[in-house]
């Protein structure tokens, strides 16, 4: 499974053009995850160049929670003037809408896609205390685990959540899902050994693998 980062906004073309040259003031970029995750990394790398080309500052606002839904909802309810954007992804703009009982916006109509900003793989990692370096070894550990082995993800509806469920199904094992409010908090607990397995995008994991 690959994670996609998509830049989207609430746009109303007539309103934008009626105000004159766009943009004429700072642009707010909502990243619907806490600092330290893939979307946060991509957003901070890209916005500097965007600000230089647009001639206006890009103001990043991290608003994590509910699998990216809280931040996306802020943008969905913002004025349709092109000055509030969201750096969503496969999880926050697609999977979340399928697994959450209540979503306060319609993904198909609430946002206007601007462009893809990144594409990367998801990986599964384990704490060094877990005696597994291959999926076959992880399968054996999970089958013998009592209680069931647990895995962390950045949140319900994230690509990490979906990837973990798919891996457990493919290995025919039971693993308990522990959702967090983003990559940073989950990664801290995995590094500390409080959760043995983590499924997430590759970028934030590289310094620790």
How would you characterize the overall build of this protein?
The protein is of the alpha/beta class. The chain has two domains: about 1-120, D-Maltodextrin-Binding Protein, domain 2 (3-Layer(aba) Sandwich); about 120-209, D-Maltodextrin-Binding Protein, domain 2 (3-Layer(aba) Sandwich), CATH 3.40.190. The protein is built from eight helices and eight strands, in the order E-H-E-H-E-H-E-H-H-E-H-E-H-E-H-E. It has helices at about 15-20, 40-55, 70-75, 90-100, 105-110, 135-145, 160-170, 185-190, and strands at about 1-10, 25-30, 60, 85-90, 110-125, 150-155, 175-180, 195-200. Strands 3-2-4-1-5-8-6-7 form an eight-stranded mixed sheet, sandwiched between helices. Strand 6 (about 150-155), helix 7 and strand 7 form a beta-alpha-beta unit. The protein starts with a strand and ends in an 8-residue tail after the last strand. Residues about 10-15 have low confidence and may be disordered.
